[in-house]
Design brief:
Number of strands of chain A: 17
Strand content of chain A: 15-25%
Largest sheet of chain A: 8 strands, antiparallel
Helix content of chain A: 25-40%
CATH architecture of the largest domain in chain A: 2-Layer Sandwich
Structural class of chain A: alpha+beta
Oligomer: homodimer
Largest interface: A-B, 84 and 84 residues
Bound molecules: flavin-adenine dinucleotide
Chain lengths: ~425, ~425
């Protein structure tokens, strides 16, 4: 890896790391002629240390393999993107990926202890270490989520957790989105942190029932909540009852529960297949990814409905409700000229709405190429400038994944000018 | 704050942020003539948002005030250094401080959502935000633990947690350190994550009994373990029994338990007073701070005993056992010429031992001025160089807390040469 990167430097050719190519913000797509460095031959588990709860893997290792490797001994790897059977750990690190279980256990950055990276100039550097806290600057933390712009991860030390003694999944059926949203807030306010808490709206429910037929999701529900509770058996029993009570108090028509592994998987199956199912509803769909403070859920869902009406495109809503991480799926037909542009505009309006209520333009899918023009909506020039100075440190020649994350005047127009001006100044100074 | 920093820049005068001055690695001590910017007049709680579980504070706010502010509503701020009734949140952020409850809930960096900082050039920049995940580089993460070298935090958004329904503290009494160490491993292996798990050796036990007279710590124990269990009432009941069983299996002579708040405080009182009590054992003492993988506990304690014998200074051991974070207290008399140098050498040997077994030269007290010469024991030249480039980005003139974290040839000799050479090169390029 270091040799390849050095050669790229020698000839000033940009390069882009690529794991499994499941990224949803165009991060692994070249924006100019580049060498694509695909990690799919780097799929070794390098070491497993159960006593100290850590595992070292190569970047091409598939997310779900990590849990598979340690589950026999009663451990698991917590971050579980819906794409987990195909996406790579290297990609997860680059995107700081989340998943259903990240509400309770934290996203990727909370599970990466250390990294070996090849810097954009081809040097091999160790960041962090084998234990949770390392002195000096937290460069591991800055690398996680940097979307391939600060170098390529070649060895990743992950923290693994002990599997819970007991797990229960609840499915609550609501006749209004507001009620489901209020339930989410009430569960958290009660001090219960579910292993996962996901919401799906009527459109998504029907889409997944059409495609994967769980036969568990009520087709006439306005919204469902999936709540996973894990812990000691006694703890799960008590929290299960508390969650059921809260759902009922908020008007849930019914609450189904599943404790045996097969039935639990069945309840989750629809949620995990939601993106794929959207593809059956409509010739094309556009996944948006934004975050809002949990308390703004009902308001924001209403506003999304207003935008959907205004633009004339149906929107299916699936989201990590506990984290306030929305995934509106905009349904459209790309064969109709001009549709994609309209949909992108609608997607942008949703992001601006998220920022307006104090949220973020990306929850877990990154900025990549797709969202870089929205960065100035969230960050001031000084903020963006500071990030770009950090980029210069690692990536002085700008060869590692150029054209990502930061706004450029060519694609974003005026908004990018100030930040970009500084970036160019940076290039000269180095 | 920004105005003061700008004036310092104008006259090229170094400046150092200072909170309460409780830091244990000399971070807030000027190494050359400097302006000391003390945050003790910035003690306002700026906003409290219980629904979204966050609070915004000024940097001079004292750690324990945060919990005091929200405890009436059933919330608390998790990181609780033993110095919590006096240290500032700004200092906590700069040192990425830990405490008894960080085993289960994570250190400061896991609880800082966003920061407003004054950069070393006097600009005001926002890092992170009001919600847990923010796109772009994780500059909040890099600022936390940067020991005042990347700027001064002026507003800090903290995550607050819901108080547990039930809490129980256990005190287990062992006749060997190995048995206590094995108990720690067994508890974690059983999948129990205590709210806190602390170990004290015989010397420390007697020191605190002499000084604060808890009358609970058995003076003839070779080691005691303090284990706090929190959660639902049912959960605490089950885990309490499991922990008692594990202690007994490992030969604990007795296990005392306390559930009511007053008695719990009494059990913790000795641990919290351990550093202060050491001051009564001996005219002077030197606190060391290192981390080891948990499984190395018994071996490392044995080696520390060997070093104590070899150098001829008694060592009291107090530590965050669950995290493998050691705090050996070396007892000596500074009036004896040459003693301090000997003790510093002994402290250094302990750090090298930590690194040798795969640990770290600092758990929570930072590098500051005291440990910078040990950085090359843990990091390669390329690693240190990368950190120093990041420092240059924020701190191009080197005015913010100079002479900290990174080795310098004047104080560290040869070891510092490579890293420092690059640093100087960096200064020129900017
Ligand atoms: C159906 C579906 C469901 C999804 N669900 C989720 C979800 O629940 N949560 C979630 O967070 N995401 C989700 N995603 C998005 C995606 O799976 C994640 O972002 C994933 O981490 C990408 O991994 P990858 O290996 O496919 O990376 P790629 O797409 O190959 O690359 C993504 C980025 O990572 C960089 N990169 C790859 N490898 C490295 C490396 N070794 N070092 C440095 N940079 C590298 C690339 O340059 C690129 O910028 C989903 C995607 C799909 C298609
Ligand atoms: C008895 C005792 C017990 C202790 N127990 C613990 C413990 O359990 N866990 C633990 O982690 N530590 C512990 N400490 C160490 C110390 O209390 C912590 O490091 C604490 O966070 C320092 O806070 P302070 O306000 O005193 O900072 P100071 O000592 O004033 O400063 C420490 C560093 O922070 C920087 N700084 C201060 N304010 C700012 C700001 N606003 N912006 C940027 N940089 C800033 C300073 O420049 C300096 O480098 C203990 C100390 C004592 C004396």
């Amino acid at each position: 890896m270091a040799a390849v990167v050095k050669i790229c430097n020698q000839y000033s050719v940009p390069f882009i790391a690529r794991g499994s190519g499941t990224g949803l913000s165009g991060g692994a797509l070249p924006s100019e002629d580049s060498v694509l460095i695909v990690t799919s031959l780097m799929r070794q588990i390098l070491s497993v240390d159960l006593d100290n709860q850590r595992i070292i893997v190569q970047p091409g290792v598939i997310n779900s393999w990590v849990t598979q490797t340690v589950s026999g001994a009663g451990f698991y790897y917590a971050p579980d993107p819906s794409s987990q059977i195909i996406c790579s750990i290297g990609g997860n690190v680059a995107e700081n990926s989340g998943g259903v279980h990240c509400l309770k256990y934290g996203v990727t950055t909370n599970h990466v202890l250390g990294l070996k990276i090849v810097t954009p100039e081809g040097e091999i550097v160790d960041l962090g270490g084998q234990i949770p806290e390392s002195p000096g600057y937290d460069l591991t933390g800055i690398f996680v989520g940097s979307e391939g712009t600060l170098g390529i991860a070649t060895e990743i030390t992950l923290r693994i957790l002990k599997s819970a003694e007991s797990i229960c999944v609840l499915l609550a059926d609501f006749t209004s989105v507001e009620a489901a949203g209020a339930t989410v807030s009430d569960i958290i306010s009660a001090g219960i942190i579910p292993g996962g808490m996901e919401m799906m709206d009527n459109v998504s429910i029907n889409a997944v029932e059409d495609v994967v037929a769980t036969n568990c999701y009520p087709r006439d529900a306005t919204a469902i909540l999936l709540v996973e509770i894990d812990g000691l058996e006694v703890e799960v029993a008590v929290n299960k009852q508390r969650v059921i009570d809260i759902c009922k108090q908020n008007g849930a028509r019914s609450v189904t529960s599943a404790s045996d592994p097969e039935m639990r998987l069945k309840l989750w199956k629809g949620r995990k297949a939601a993106f794929a199912a959207a593809g059956h509803l409509s010739p094309d769909y556009y996944v948006q990814d934004g975050v809002i403070p949990r308390t703004q859920l009902p308001y924001v869902l209403q506003e999304i409905e207003v935008l959907s009406q205004k633009f004339g495109y149906p929107i299916a809503n699936v989201f990590h409700a506990g984290d306030g991480n929305l995934h509106p799926l905009i349904l459209f037909d790309n064969a109709i000229p001009g549709a994609l542009e309209k949909v992108e505009e609608l997607g942008g309006e949703i992001l601006k709405l998220c920022v307006r209520v104090g949220g973020s333009i990306s929850g877990e899918h990154g900025i990549g190429a797709d969202k870089k023009c929205y960065m100035p909506d969230m960050f001031s020039d000084a903020d963006l400038e500071t990030m770009q100075w950090v980029r210069q440190v690692f990536n002085p020649q700008g060869l590692a994944n150029p054209g990502k994350i930061f706004p450029t005047p060519r694609t974003c127009g005026e908004a990018a000018n100030v930040a970009n001006h500084k970036q160019l100044e940076g290039v000269e100074r180095f």
